[in-house]
């Protein structure tokens, strides 16, 4: 680990905050993806019984 001197607390806390934000973004992305897949599955299920007009 590099020698951070008197700025160790600030640098390490910035790293910690960055990691927490990144983890939150990953979790939010996964959650939104799951919701989008569920909405798509519902929409496809609704149209299964209909005949395509094309």
Automatic annotation (TrEMBL):
Record's bilayer topology term: Single-pass membrane protein
Q: Which GO terms describe its biological process?
A: cytochrome complex assembly; heme transport
Q: Name one Pfam family in it.
A: CcmD
Q: Which UniProt keywords apply?
A: Cell inner membrane, Cell membrane, Cytochrome c-type biogenesis, Membrane, Transmembrane, Transmembrane helix, Transport
Family membership:
Belongs to the CcmD/CycX/HelD family.
User: What subcellular compartments does it reside in?
Assistant: Cell inner membrane
**Ranges annotated as spanning the membrane:** 12-30
Q: Which domain of life is it from?
A: Bacteria
According to its UniProt entry, what is the function of this protein? Required for the export of heme to the periplasm for the biogenesis of c-type cytochromes.
Where does this protein chiefly localize? membrane
Question: GO CC terms on record?
Answer: plasma membrane
Q: What is this protein called?
A: Heme exporter protein D
Q: Which NCBIfam families does this UniProt record tie to the protein?
A: cytochro_ccmD
